[in-house]
Protein: Homoserine O-acetyltransferase
Organism: Sphingomonas oleivorans
Amino acid sequence: MFHDARFGLARHVTLPGPLRLDGGGELAQVEIAYETYGTLDAAGSNAVLICHALTGDQHVASTHPITGKPGWWARMVGAGQPIDPARHFIICANVLGSCMGSSGPASVDPAMGVPFAMRFPVITIRDMVRAQAMLLDHLGVGICRAVVGGSMGGMQVLQWAATFPERVQAAVVIASAARHSAQNIAFHEVGRQAIMADPNWRGGEYYRMDDPPAAGLAVARMAAHITYLSEAGLTEKFGRRLQARDAKSFGFDADFQVESYLRHQGISFVDRFDANSYLYITRAMDYFDLAEEHGGLLANAFRGTNTRFCIVSFDTDWLYPTSESRSIVHALNAAGAAVSFVELSSPFGHDAFLLDVPELNAVVDGFLKAGEA
């Protein structure tokens, strides 16, 4: 389906494998759903790859087909924005393991004719990046002018710079980390257990029942969503304010406004996301440890690189606090890499990279244009 380049071109491709995975499995073929914006220039030098976060997708700057909402990063990507289809050939792919058209547990296993479910092989962030590299090969993109992402997207950016340094001219890592802390893993495990405790999960074999573990997935989303916000932001937005007693969700009275908000987040999430994909992707994030891949020293991941780095954190982000970004910066300094770093002030917590923070746009715009001069 073709669109004006300003608004995106939605595509799906099945790439021949095998794609060998870090966990020892392999995929005979790889399905990737993606969107592109703009046009690749004659020199093939203006490609910008955008990597999405845990519950994101390829609809970075175009209307979401399920929710009808604008693209998740329309503040950053579009005409006149830092990542602009007038200057860039923009690519955003649904990650391996997800549920918006790329290979994942909901995909049909060609050998059995039914969804993979929990037979889908375990995946890592590096596996996601290898699949994206296959897509770029298919598109004729050899080198990216920039690879950009926030949160789990930032993990992918770091993995790109470490695995394919010759293909990444610039890397923008926003509100991210080079590995998950024990606290990060703990929050994810609460979400996974909520899904698996739902009777409708059925060991992952719920696709043919058309009755997914919606309650468990909603609770997982609610728990995770708390980590995306800041205490100050929640207090300012909701405080301890009560609401009408007849407001109901899941059959229980929602006495506090913050309860109703979280329940809405959970209920709306199950309409667009797959529970098994949530299990697989959160596990991939927990496994991510870029230093461990390089002898236990993060600097080793970047030695000899010619990639320019921009690292951004937010002062109210307690999921991936500024200390995590500083660790990345120190490793890049030790490796002799070119790196810029800024901590921005925002009341929005981890979600700040998705929200209206003009300073973030200014940082990304300046960094990208400096490399294009």
